[in-house]
Amino acid sequence: MRDFTTAATSMLAAPDGTDMCPPFLATLPVTGVGISTLGNPLGSSTVCASDALAERVDEIQIDLGEGPCWEALTTHRPVLEPDLAETSATRWPVALEALRRAGVGAVFSFPMRIGTIPVGAVDLSVGHDLVLTTAQLRGAVVLTEVAARRVLRGALLDAAEHGRADMATGRYSRREVHQATGMTAAQLGLDVDDALLVLQAHAYATERTVRDVAADVIAGRIDLARPYGSEN
Fold it and tell me: Does the predicted TM-score (pTM) go above 0.85?
């Protein structure tokens, strides 16, 4: 556990804004790390991702609103899937199919919570089947606890600066999703929850991300009020 303790201490002492993925990669036999906030009160957004596949793992689950990270946060327990090709998991069937298509072989999701506050989750992934040892799982929990504190601190600082915690700008920002949801709600006469479902359904049907569909809605390239979101 010494390596994990050292990595956790370094992560905790690092300046605000420091990438939190490297300590996980340095101490665990995984190739992908994604850290995200989920649901209330911080909103759903990727905080950091180690590579394109890790970013896609996060995006799939945030877009669909289901997956191992949501289960981990809800159950307050890690969700360990060492072989997605053989898993019999039926709790998140759409996300499971999408993760398999993306080339994910194994995924391990750890919930981030501070007391009673749900923060988000850490997803560890690799392109082949993998079993983590008990010591590795304990180490991942230690690192996740530090990540949770840093994410919550960052969200509070962001809220103090921008007025809300889920509107950060940058590579992983989902601000356009919020904007497109509002536009779709107004166009279709829906509440925002149902409007988001429309965006998610269109993204899934066209095998695109919700962020890409949102950008097209805002730019007027597609109109979800028309049949099949016909392009303008």
Answer: no
Q: What is the pLDDT of residue 167?
A: 42
Which of these, 90, 85, 83, 61, lies nearest to 73 by C-alpha position? 61
The b-or-e profile of 54-65 (16+ CB within 10 A means b, else e) is bbbbbbbbbbbb
Q: What is the pLDDT of residue 210?
A: 80
Q: In 10 A of CB 94, how many CB atoms?
A: 15
Q: What are the E-state strand segments in the chain?
A: 32-37, 45-49, 79-81, 106-114, 117-126
CA atoms within 13 A on the CB side of 63: 26
Peptide bond into 82 cis (omega under 30): no
What pLDDT sits at residue 127?
Answer: 95
Reduced 3-state DSSP string for 185-230: HHHHCCCHHHHHHHHHHHHHHCCCCHHHHHHHHHHCCECCCCHHHC
pLDDT for 113 beyond 90: yes
Q: Among 71, 59, 131, 65, which residue's Cα sits nearest to residue 99?
A: 59
